[in-house]
Amino acid sequence: MKHVSDSYPTKAAHSDRPVNKRAPSDHYRLRPAREPDIPFIHALMREMAVFEKLTEIFKATQDSLRASFFGPQPAAHCLVIHSDAEPDRPIAYIMWFYNYSSFLDKRGLYLEDIYVQPEHRGRGLGSMALRHLAQLAVEQDCGRFEWTVLDWNQNAIDFYKRHGAEILPEWRIVRVTGDALQRLAKES
């Protein structure tokens, strides 16, 4: 059984609490991603990009994901969910990383992506993933657990609110990317 200590440096790494968790239906498991999962994670990310109507900005490759998750300085962490019937075929992925709040003077846990294939939704898998990350945030003494949601995705907004999340209407995402990033970097 894979333990937290095998993939993540957490307080729980010193305990025997497994990361390998079962969904309420008992037919699915949540576990840290492994390198052989990369093709599946990449395909799931593409599905998410199609769903979110963002394929024009989808640039991830299997090699870039391998470096991001398993390289010498991983940029992010990834969990997968698979069915007991097909343990080597993830049907969901959860990508997260740590950030930092100057006001709280604590790091936070930032959920970048959570995607469950449509045919597996409504079975408690998203809830299981959110609970796992919330537990990790508490164990790591994070000041907050946060993420963004597209304003048109009412199903996701309702799902997050049911789990106690607060949608912050007074905040806006500020992003500089592509040519604008290059220009900003060259300004003197």
TrEMBL record:
Coiled-coil ranges from the UniProt annotation: none
Keyword annotations from UniProtKB, A to Z: Acyltransferase, Ribonucleoprotein, Ribosomal protein, Transferase
Biased amino acid composition, Basic and acidic residues: 13-28
Domain N-acetyltransferase: 28-179
A molecular function (GO) term: N-acetyltransferase activity
Gene Ontology annotations for the cellular component aspect, listed alphabetically: ribosome
Short name of one Pfam family: Acetyltransf_1
Region feature Disordered, mapped onto this chain: 1-28
Family per similarity comment: Belongs to the acetyltransferase family.
PANTHER family on file: DIAMINE N-ACETYLTRANSFERASE, GH14572P-RELATED
Protein's name in the database: Ribosomal protein S18 acetylase RimI-like enzyme
Organism, as annotated: Paralcaligenes ureilyticus
